[in-house]
């Protein structure tokens, strides 16, 4: 009869009395105590964990985008590229999460939907912050956060500085002949501007000379590609589960999400493709 494997014989520590353990480091006890279903519906636990983990990934995305903007302003391109690649992979992870939520049927969701009250993912301030950092700055979207002054203040502070894409445009003009870039649209969504698109065209038509800017452009397209897929997966999941009903937060649900599919974060990079 073979004896059970004992990793302690090979040096693994098995006693953590008075020492930092895995659970201690991650504060697992507190984290795992944050799931509080409001009904007895089996699938509500799935719904809660899906959204909580999404918020954790978005927290990391904001952390990376903030650092990427600082790196860009310091012309630390290699570090910035790594951070942008990580944000794209974060959104890949967020996209995969919809596959888990789609295992919930309309009948499953109906069992606990009323328990949500007017709460909705539409009110995610971290999602709003990601949009604001990237340049989609709709001031009307501040309103759902007015009841939490600290959050509203945090979002408004983002309006006071150029977005990540605004900083990219500064680098774009410096790297393609100088000149004064268009003024940042601090409190409005970024809209396509011909002079910016013309500079990107210079980069794409001579990528070897402007390789860093070319790589940056493709990193941004990659990021928005994943971001668009996230929006599309959100749309199809909502349509699959509630059809064309209004969202719990009062939005038109599927119709609202379809409208969001038309939002472009870096429009010049997409419009340019038809010119090349």
Tell me what the structure shows.
Helix 6 (about 125-135) runs parallel beside helix 7 (about 150-160). Helix content is about 55%, strand content about 0%. It has one domain (about 40-275): Methane Monooxygenase Hydroxylase, Chain G, domain 1 (Up-down Bundle). It is globular. It is built from twelve helices and no strands. The chain has helices spanning about 20-25, 30, 45-75, 75-100, 105-110, 125-135, 150-160, 165-175, 195-205, 210-240, 255-260, 265-270. With about 280 residues, the chain is mainly α.
Blueprint of the fold:
Blueprint lengths: L21 H5 L1 H4 L12 H30 L3 H25 L4 H5 L14 H10 L14 H11 L4 H12 L18 H12 L5 H32 L11 H7 L6 H5 L5
CATH architecture designation: Up-down Bundle
One letter per element, helices H and strands E, the order comes to HHHHHHHHHHHH
CATH topology: Methane Monooxygenase Hydroxylase, Chain G, domain 1
Could you tell me the strand content as a percent range? under 5%
Q: How many domains make up the coordinates?
A: 1
Shape: globular
Task: Provide the gyration radius in Å.
Answer: 22 Å
Look at the structure and give the CATH class: Mainly Alpha
What's the rounded overall pLDDT mean?
93
Question: What's the N-to-C terminus distance?
Answer: 72 Å
Tell me the helix content: 55-70%
Main sheet summary: none
- Total count of strands: 0
Structural class: mainly alpha
Query: What's the number of helices?
Result: 12
Poorly predicted residue ranges: none
Give a brief outline of the structure.
This protein is mainly alpha-helical and 276 residues long. It contains 12 helices and no strands.
